[in-house]
Amino acid sequence: MFENIDLGESLKRHFGFDTFKGNQEAIIKNVLNGNDTFVLMPTGGGKSLCYQLPALIMPGTAIIISPLIALMKNQVDAMRNFSEEDGVAHFLNSSLTKTAISLVKEDVISGKTKLLYVAPESLTKEENINFLNQITISFYAIDEAHCISEWGHDFRPEYRRIRPIINEIGLAPVIALTATATPKVQHDIQKNLGMLNATIYKSSFNRPNLFYDVRPKTSATKEIIKILKNYEGKSAIIYCLSRKKVEELAETLVVNGIKAIPYHAGMDANARAQNQDKFLMEDADVVVATIAFGMGIDKPDVRLVIHYDIPKSLEGYYQETGRAGRDGGEGRCIAFYSYKDIVKLEKFMQGKPLAEQEIGKQLLLETVAYAESSICRRKLLLHYFGENYTTENCENCDNCVHPKEQFEGQNSVEKLLKIIIEVKEKFKSDHIVNILCGTVNTAIKSYKHNELELFGCGDDEDEKYWNAVIRQSLVAGYLSKDIENYGILKITEAGQQFLIHPESFMITKDHDYDNAEDELTAGGTAAVDPVLFSMLKDLRKKVAHKKELPPFVIFQDPSLEAMATYYPVNIDELQNIPGVGSGKAKRFGKEFIDIIKRHVEENEIDRPMDMVVKTVANKSKNKIAIIQGIDRKIPLDDLANSKGLSMDELLKEVESIVYSGTKVNIDYHIDEVMDEDHRDDIFYYFKEEAESDDINAALEELGEDEYSEEEIRMIRIKFISEVGN
Questions:
Q1: Sorting pLDDT into bands at 50, 70 and 90, what band is 613?
Q2: Mean pLDDT over residues 285-292, rounded?
Q3: What is the DSSP string of 78-93?
Q4: pLDDT at 511
Q5: Cα distances (Å, whole numbers) of residue 334 to 87, 115, 263, 343, 517
Q6: Sign of the CA dihedral running 122, 123, 127, 132
Q7: Which of 47, 78, 386, 658 is the residue whose CA sits 20 to 30 A from 608?
Q8: Percentage of residues in the chain having pLDDT higher than 70
Q9: CA 610 distance to own-chain centroid
Q10: How many whole angstroms from its chain centre is CA 717?
Q11: What domains does the chain contain, in order, with CATH numbers?
Q12: How far is CA 544 from CA 423, 581, 587, 634, 713, in A?
């Protein structure tokens, strides 16, 4: 029927493109011929054209089943831009009013609408089934088809009801499309949709322009700010697992001068749509989002995809990173990893059905394997999707750019394979590792595996080492994982051959990110620049002398240490140094900034700008209530009681308030509880005699018999507030 159609001409006329990409033309011909079609194509490969073009050519309306309202809106807007007729594409979902639904139905019945996007939930409604029974359906397209499989990264139970509904509405060819599916998920989709005989079009999952990078999760926010400053004006997506983190991170980025917006399912639908449009229209450079964002978002020039939290599955990770560099240009994918996050994700699974927990745990283990492994990231990812990547060094991932040392592992692989055979290929990797390391636990005892001759034969290495051997044997094809049976390890034909004719096998030790974390966080002030610190102390003395103030009023030692570590070179950066605040930065800062700037330039210092991060002003509710109480002149002991604090705790809070640069006036309380002479003596001591603000030094100088610690602390608060702020 469509043999004589010039597809190239149709492509040019409808979409303005001169040529098809990859398998697009073959897929479109298959759909036009009325065949069921399964399309596996990575993000950016041009999946949507595979159903859009045949829908415009064929008589009737194509029903596009899609999981997200935002995705539908995006796709419908895109289709309308290609056509003179707005009615060419519509969506039918819960966001529409009754009037809007009537208009959609009119356009569909009149034959104007070639593509009708429907959410699976809307498809099951009786009124919609009745309506769709009346129209000619060209074909059904099921987008994001991985949502059908419980083994997929975004399982939606309502997706499993699509086939019975199609049978009820009326049969027509089916095209299922996804950007990510392991062989297991692919089979699941075909089986559930009753399309085991479909023609399968599978494109390579390799995205050669994407750089994959996994980093230890230390000071992640600071590192992200540094990265974004280097990508100024370019589009970036940052994924977080919780809505709270999305809000916090977006706020912190904005405070640090980055045009960022949040996006998550808990936001009002209008705010969400507005933020999505801001990102697409480039009114915002960065969107901080939960995984609710990005499915089908067709922004070709996203240069950065950052995972603040490691995703729950490698499929999720692959799909989310796939939103970078869809135009073939640079795409950098950075994930921050800490095993603590994995433990947290496992805890979230508790309480779910056991089968779901088991699937979830296995998907998490694959993510851990990817993050901790030090072999080529591309090779691991493609292996996960059933694709063999043979290039030794992809030159576009952190592990290939900074390769770790390799060593001979032939003997280790032999031990591993022999043990798997010994236990009749019936156990998962954690059990095999316990046998190798000689670890006795309940499972080992109950199977009497502690009595095996090979038990403990690998106890000269730890479990991290043996996990690396297992992962690298899987990638090399000596082992396979039986997914149906929760990841049981099986030996392949190649593994059997290896045992008959062992050969050299180089092993790379895995990354140990959690220890890297400890190393990075140890020795906080080790980076203080002693020369600059000394210069800043001299300057403080000079400024103090000029202003006739004690040096500690200008800036305290910890603040100078921080300046000599992070090199702030403008007022914005300076006021974010601990103990400075905006008032002090403006009042005393200029000379300090000048000296730091000069020192940095003269010594060609590479500033750790990632450290100078402004935090969102976060005065605790307690602090705000205390400031308000002092403004209302409530006696401090009454204020402490009302907050359930001791007087010592209250004074600590007030000290923290004044040291961060906020003025408070507690004269009303001091006048009530202290005599005038005592007050003036302490004030004079801090103004004229004190070398530091140390309370013990003050007690010693003034006399512990005559002055109490509480009195000295109150006058110190008064002094810092009046003189320093």
A1: low
A2: 87
A3: HHHHH-S-GGGEEEES
A4: 81
A5: 41, 37, 19, 21, 17
A6: positive
A7: 658
A8: 94
A9: 18
A10: 42
A11: 7-202 (3.40.50.300), 210-372 (3.40.50.300), 410-504 (1.10.10.10), 530-611 (1.10.150.80), 621-724 (1.10.10.1390)
A12: 77, 18, 12, 34, 22
Cβ 549 vs Cβ 691: under 8 Å: no
Q: What is the 3 state secondary structure string of 359-417? A: HHHHHHHHHHHHHHCCCCHHHHHHHHCCCCCCCCCCCCEHHHHCCCCEEECHHHHHHHH
Q: What is the pLDDT of residues 158-168, one digit of tens each?
A: 888 999 999 99
In the chain, the N- to C-terminal Cα span, in Å, equals 83
Angle between helices 581-602 and 530-547 (to 10 degrees): 130
For 456, the token pair is 């403990």
The Cα 20–Cα 11 span in angstroms is 8
CB neighbour list of residue 485: distance below 8 Å, 6 or more residues apart: none
Which two structure tokens, joined as six digits, stand for 99? Answer: 């009037």
* Averaged pLDDT for residues 521-526: 36
Could you tell me if 8 and 57 are in contact, meaning their C-beta atoms sit under 8 angstroms apart?
no
Q: Count the Cβ atoms, other than its own, within 10 Å of residue 75.
A: 23
- 504 is written with which tokens? 């050299």
